[in-house]
Structure of Penicillin-binding protein Pbp:
Amino acid sequence: MDFMPEKKKSMTVRRFFTLLLAYLLFCVAGGVVVSGFLFPAVLGVNAAATNMMPALKTENIDFNVNDLPQQSRLYASDGHTVIATFYAQNRIVVPIKNVSGYMQKAVVAREDRRFFEHSGVDTQGVLRAFIQTYIKQGDTQGGSTLTQQYVKNMLMNQAEENNDPIAEYHAQEETIARKMREMLIAVQMEKKYSKPEILQGYLNIAQFGTNVYGVETAARRYFNKSAKNLDPGEAATIAAVTKNPARFDPTVDINASQEQRNIVLDLMLQEHYIDREQHDQARSKPLEETLHVQSVDAGCQAAGDAAFFCDYVTKQILNSKEFGKTQEDRNKLLKEGGLDIYTTMDVDANAAAMQAARDTIPVDDPSGFEVTMAAIRPGTGEVLGFGINRIYDATQNSGGGTRTAINYAVDQVDGGGWGFPVGSTWKPINMAAWMKEGRSINEPLRTMTNYNQSTFNCQEPDGTSYGFGSGNWHVENSGGGTTSPETPLQGLVRSHNTTQASMAQQIGLCSIADTAKDLGYHNSPRDQMDIHSPNSFQLPMTIGSVQASPLTMANVYATLAAKGTACTPIAMTKVVDKNNKNLKVPKANCHQAIEPGIAETVAYAMNQGVVQPGGEAATTQLDGGRKTFAKTGTHEDKYMTTGGFVPQVAAFVTVGNAEGQVSFSGKTINGRSMGTWFGMYIATPAWKEFMNTYLAAANIAPDNDYGNPDPKFTRAVAMQGKTESQQQQEQEEARRRAQEEAQRRAQEEEQQRARQQAEQQAQQQQHAEQQPVAPAQPQDQ
């Protein structure tokens, strides 16, 4: 029965002689480079020593702190507002000059007070640890120097980077072999690097709390300041954490953290790093009063109202070859590359869009309809922001309800959905296509309610032919029937569908598709983005029966606002990596897509006819007499849209159910009930609120010089087979009918508003009658 004690005693003696050998070797070396330790003669002294000293290949270990995983930061367009951070390890690497002297000394006092005296291995510390652990049989003591701890952390980090769990295990196992390896590398490091460089490495790699790595991140986390500005008490607090990051984190156990802070302050005083007054002043402050804790939540989940824009940026990175060959490479770069990502998001624009969306339909409105908005800066491709009456939540796997990670404002490939039918907001595209064929917007057209589908057949320049069958396409205006003759200008002003069909019949559906593509249009579904996709390239395309994202339509309108200059939407202007190198970012590729005269003529039509009093989008008129260009749309009774621009900003709004088609008829939305809803009742107010709010916040002055029509596209054209007198008579009759229709709609709206007001007053009266009567109060004498 004496076997076990004898074995334990034997192992203890063996360890004693092993560690004693190591201690003597380092004492003799005295900091001399240890390449001599690798000579066979030395290793042959003892078999145990051979087992403890594996082959040392320091050239395979990169001790450059800039190669550590670092957090990436997403900035708004102002260059300083942080939208979100991304990281595998929450770390910001800084040079030693950007760490306060108090912080440097606090770590040395706590972890390695002879740091500036030893040569990588503290022989006194090793002997003390040996005696405490193996002679006195007390608690295990490590005796590790800051240099050794730096080595250990680097070995663990390298193993993680190489996805080598075996190496990771050996880097932290409690064995003599691991200790000896750290000692050997530490001595070599001390020959290669200066003390400040080693201290810099340690301060950047060490863990200073739960998901907090490096001193700069710790300073920002606990005190909302840079490490270079830490005072003695703050420095002592951070230095104390690394001994046990899970326990001494101030946000985990503030009492334990304060106790440890005071211990570090005592050590700093003992080493003469601070004087008695500084010590006493810092020690007397309750730790809770010194903290200014910041969130360490990572990713778009912590970006608040900027979360949907944040998600769009991350999708742009993951989908762009500029950031790596594979999505895995790009994701690694985002979370470990220490990127500074400067985005196009305007803080004021995004805030105004989110507020407008929620003001129009609150997040928890029983109707469940989504308000989705995108804004873009014309002529640049810069996406300014998104508005969605939803709360971003990436913890769910799909959209639905009040919380979602789906950004309905963008294409499916960028994290959005299938898009929305855009209705009559498509019609400015038809007008641009008409003028591209050299036609005048004042040319009278015969319209009808039935068109032979074969008359729309067309051929693309590459020879691809498209046919649409031999049947009839039945199309009517929203009020029923048709108006004939009617010009393209009148067809846009009155938002008549039959005129769009007549235009498409004459110039061909291919011409309209090509113009839409030139303006920046594509479908939203991932596998149907080409406008010639069978699901979209059909005759109803001319009246907006397509699936488009609000961002795509905002970009189309931005082209019209920029004199025909089309750009690819971009979310980033600059990306700088941790080595201060500029990385390539997706380009806007701005180019002249259509003639400036065509763009300005479409703008003229949208302003003079559509927005001016009596027009279909008169309610879009912006504040202060600002010249406004807009168009409303309604797809059946299920989607409401409004798009528009001023020369500096273009925006598009869609209102509907993103998960499936739901009728607006009879719905109560944001406390308002209507039998029939139109875009002007719900999408237009959202668009108008955003534009007015953002233009005022950004102090953007009106530019009322835009929208001058090109005479060659507004010339009068005689209708074939009609005398001038007959044409004038027919056009006058068409104008009369249009005015009557506008008056009829205005009367209906007024009657509807009167009914709603009466209902609200009745409800308020009923509510007041149901309230208990308060007892009379005594009057002052």
Confidence is low (pLDDT under 50) at residues 1-11, 27-59, 771-781. The chain has 26 helices and 20 strands. The CA atoms of residues 11 and 690 lie 77 Å apart.
